[in-house]
């Protein structure tokens, strides 16, 4: 909008992060409509176009600013620059820009959008490396990483125009949530003091809850049977792109994102429902393509031709999902079905009939004796250890021998870095009481509910215990997601009016999994009073989490080897 007064075409220049960010919310056609003729990479060599204006959308880092200055310092590549930063630009970088490029800069703004909006209710800081920085005992940049994530979280709040009250999950053996909550709260206060309008913003009807990955080690390791979680666990999906072969043998691909309405509709459904619904949809479309026996006229033909592209798009979408659901079901019937029963019994602590699992080893043993993949066995062993709240050294050695991972025991041992007890006796207990869901209708192999769903529901109903969830900063007294109003607030507003304003933002240090993302939608659906938004440093799959866990001690192993030499 800043440079749309002139009708001339412009160039847009992005860094890798803003390229991803822009791709998540616009298509090239949207940019063309705004008179953007070409999109270029800030870090690649570009041809000068001195007669054109350039829009720079970039992160406020030294590397980005140096590349920008290089474009104008000696021979200006463009007629003028309109600069937009994703976040607050440090003074030293800003002064450098002024020094070398001031006469070319028409606009310089910070637009506070340093996060990835992945889905309607899910965001990510797009920083998978944060896991190692926060949890590796050898980490040199933990504080720096927490600062960066806090800055990103502040831009999310700014985008939503929220100044939330901040609470964190208190852990007896970990300090990360407390440190992070303090950082976020300070940075929020600073951001809203610096507000352009000159007025200091008060707290809004929102609450921000901060947790870290160790609060629920079970959910990211279970074999989930809802469509999205199952697909990302069992099928090789890279950058949200599913590659498959069509019936005629051609290589095809489908992008699984918010633009695919069928994906949005099906992603949280159980695979049994998905497998039932997609073939029906394909039949419906095929039937709608067949014209009734009516007189063929030019007009009828023209209408058919008009409909064809949309019908073709619908069929392509549905065929891709038909194939993806088939692939998931194939994996399910080969291996996953038998695994799921044992996993659910270990996670929930009782079987399908509600009988308590008295001896978890009897549940685990068939998994260890069956020729499942090593990774599936590691997942089952971990669920067994979590169910007991830790095991003995002797028992752990036997389990590691069974799974044949003597050289890769870090897959199991490194969970202690997340504050999860692996070896007993442990100085802390992690067993917390769970909501009773025995009356909920569930599939036998999907009885586990992510812990975060309990947290969301408790927060919305104002039932979070202040001892476990200290306030870093208070929310307004009126904040109560369920719409309950205190006696002092005898306002005559209707419940809907009162409810419409509240937001619950959940941030998990160290990654979230797809079942936790689904929980945000489920709670939102059940409690219309409050919008639930969930985000993290990055999104996890069981494989990526296990690899991250194993990598936590890589540095130490390398050091030990070089020392022996």
From TrEMBL:
Annotated segments matching region Disordered: 477-496
Family: Belongs to the STXBP/unc-18/SEC1 family.
InterPro entries the record matches: Sec-1-like_dom1, Sec-1-like_dom3a, Sec1-like, Sec1-like_dom2, Sec1-like_sf
Origin organism lineage: Eukaryota, Metazoa, Chordata, Craniata, Vertebrata
Presence of the UniProt keyword NAD in the record: no
Protein name: Syntaxin binding protein 3
Keywords of this entry: Protein transport, Transport
Any one GO BP annotation for this protein: vesicle-mediated transport
SUPFAM superfamilies: Sec1/munc18-like (SM) proteins
